[in-house]
Amino acid sequence: MVPTVRVHGDERVELLFSPRDEQGRSRIARAWFDDLDAALEIEPEPVLDVGRLGAFDDSGVNASCLVAEEGRWLLYYIGWARAVSVRFVTAIGCAVSHDDGRTFERVSEGPVIGRDLDNPYFSTSPWVLREDGCWRMWYASGVRWEAAGGRPEPRYNIRYAESLDGRRWERGPVCIDFDRPDEHAIARPAVVRDGDLYRMWFSHRGRSYRIGYAESPDGVTWDRSVPGPTLAGGEGGAWESEMVEYPFVFDYRGGRHMFYNGDGFGRTGIGHARLEDG
């Protein structure tokens, strides 16, 4: 689930992703690429393991965004905890590396964004940029849970937040909201700034996940009606024919690329797409 990339110049690409064990718990793993079509190496040990018993991330962790900060790296990740009346509660955690990303340790036992007055249900899938001394985050925030098909289903959209230190955040407005009655899940924003234009790729779901696109002049007010480069699912029977989701967009060797998940929220694997004429 949730591919997360760090580009090491023109030499190689580091991919963080989260496989699951037999109990459904996810840990953050690492793979290395050069041509992006096949992993050169998958490291045997997790980059970040599940949290302590009773912590917000004791049932799983997913990488979501890597940010450089003055000689160290911050890993913003999704922490999972099992619940009783609903299936899960997620929150946003942060881990720090002082050895160029080889090892990470949590900055705290608690999340940097959890359940609070601004996010009463859950928070997940952060994307963080540092700009002019300001930390900017786009993330998914739970709106509510609804009974559907005999079990509770979450509703969540993408919100904006800002911070002075990358750890204490103030929530801003909704960036990407539902645009049709059957849409109930919008998540995993991938934000790229091209000059004066912000571009966002995101997952949105009615019956199944698809990848959407939006543009913004300031990173706060977004227009998802503009045409833009996105990615459709494969033909019937393909590993991605039912859904495509969780995009990570990055530039490498003169081209723009996307890693993403396929069917079953990542059950069938991670794919690679390249922007046409990009």
Q: Briefly note the CATH topology name.
A: Tachylectin-2, Chain A
Q: Report the count of strand segments.
A: 18
Whole-angstrom Rg:
18 Å
For the record, what is the CATH homologous superfamily label?
Glycosyl hydrolase domain, family 43
Q: What's the N-to-C terminus distance?
A: 26 Å
Strand order of the main beta sheet, please? 1-2-3-4
The run of helices and strands is EEEEEEEEEEEEEEEEEHE
Class based on secondary structure composition and strand pairing? mainly beta
Largest sheet: 4 strands, antiparallel
**Average pLDDT across residues?**
92
Shape: globular
In CATH terms, what is the architecture?
5 Propeller
CATH class: Mainly Beta
**What fraction of the residues are assigned to beta strands by DSSP?**
over 45%
Structure commentary:
With 278 residues, the protein is mainly beta. Helices cover 1% and strands 51% of the residues. The protein has one domain (4-274): Glycosyl hydrolase domain, family 43 (Tachylectin-2, Chain A), CATH 2.115.10.20. It contains one helix and 18 strands. The strands form five sheets. The chain has a four-stranded antiparallel sheet with strand order 1-2-3-4, with no helix packed on it. It has a four-stranded antiparallel sheet with strand order 5-6-7-8, with no helix packed on it. The longest helix has 4 residues, at 263-266. The chain is globular and about 50 Å long. The mean pLDDT is 92.
